[in-house]
Amino acid sequence: MKLELRGITKRFGSLVANDHIDLTVEPGEIHCLLGENGAGKSTLMNVLYGLYQAEEGDILLDDVVQHFEGPGDAMAAGIGMVHQHFMLIPVFTVAENVMLGHEETGFGGRLNMAATRKKVRELSDRFGFDLDPDALIEDLPVGVQQRVEIIKALSQNAKVLVFDEPTAVLTPQETDELMAIMKQLKEAGTAIVFITHKLREVREVADRITVIRLGKVVGEAEPTATNEELASLMVGRAVDLVIDKAPARPGDPALVVTDLSVIDHIGQLVVNRVSFEVRAGEVLAIAGVQGNGQTELTEAIMGLQHRVTGEIKLAGTSLRKRSVRHVLDAGVGFVPEDRNQDGLVAEFTIAENLMLDRSSSEPFVKFGNLQLGFLAEFAEEKVKEFDVRAQGISTPVGRLSGGNQQKVVLARELSRDLRLFVAAQPTRGLDVGSIEFVHGQIIAARDAGVAVIVVSTELDEVSALADRIAVMYRGGIVGIVPGDTSRDVLGLMMAGEHPNFAGEAA
């Protein structure tokens, strides 16, 4: 099925999110929609999917103009969408989620679960998804949950499939698996719109590339274009894809972790006798495939894990079993890996989210009264400094793109007086221009004497930022190596092999 968008224009008040956008996607084609956060990519696809109504323009399928009043109309016409934040109910099974909204009934009006299970198995076998129809969503890894989203769309005979930032929450291995799935779908004749800002992914799977900037199409590119050319089109200026940083000048140990172990809520040992130190003025990157204890390690440092043994000291003072408030007040900034779950309150405004961890003291609160004037001035300054794309500081943060939400979290945490900055997946969901900015902020914090921990599954990011790299595998640290260690060596360490050269003992 051929998809064509002609002159699509969508406004939110005075903000023109889409400005007369044209786009054509042929059957059996992967068409990448590339652009910065807030450029209008997701808005355009939400118009296509019937979630928004455009003020101007037409949607055509096989040259026939469509009129979608909602997602149900779009799905009925053969359009499916895999959202960045999955539209799944955690306590439902795979089959129940696939059936939801398209319930098949049998004798006496009973749900025909057998038919849905069969459909899930057939599609799973066809694409090699290995999905159990009766598995609960909450028990599945993120990458497998995404396959459920794809099955949902394919079960409704989607001929046009939209992937909206599908790799934002995936590990590198899961990303590679998704790329292979997209190629399978393409070979089956599906027209695919792939929204992303990750240049490597674009060049790997795209047949054609359309670049959107500030709501307008600013150009088209071939997959053979260089990263620098694509980044320049996206941002409208030359982007430095290599971090320019001076050698670190580390001081005394700021954070010292000794024999730290964590047992999770189901009694599993997820961090196993980990020891390391982070000195003032250095970046220690923690690498590893997601799920090897990195999350629980950072949560233990922040006071979010309760079954913890060993010791955590910041500037000589113990943080173990202290409250999150105590940890924050000790001078720790924290960027959680799931910004929606742990970093933001979606219903609160940008300004309110910027003061979340400082809402009990001056200068934001005096004598029990919120200082609205100071908050507004502070928020305006941070929105400008971190280039948060929004209508204003009173915009609910839940309405922002994923990348702009992340900028709000970073702006809040980096604007405090810090001794230690812990950043878990700090650039997840950000575009190249924003990544350049965030990396610069992290190095600036290091150069200001802050001890920095960066947890990332992106080896390019780890190598770019790290002065030293600790690699985690099955809850332990395989080794701590210099920041210029090769990707090949890091990859072997991520699989559990110890480095065969002199490095710091774990």
Automatic annotation (TrEMBL):
A single GO cellular-component term on record: plasma membrane
**Ranges for the ABC transporter domain?**
3-239, 255-499
Question: Which InterPro entries does the record associate with it?
Answer: AAA+_ATPase, ABC_carbohydrate_import_ATPase, ABC_transporter-like_ATP-bd, ABC_transporter-like_CS, P-loop_NTPase
Name the UniProt key words of this record, in alphabetical order.
ATP-binding, Cell membrane, Membrane, Nucleotide-binding, Repeat, Sugar transport, Translocase, Transport
Origin superkingdom: Bacteria
The way it spans or sits in the membrane comes to: Peripheral membrane protein
**Major place of residence:** membrane
Gene Ontology MF term list: ATP binding; ATP hydrolysis activity
Q: What is this protein's name?
A: Simple sugar transport system ATP-binding protein
Q: State the organism of origin.
A: Glaciibacter psychrotolerans
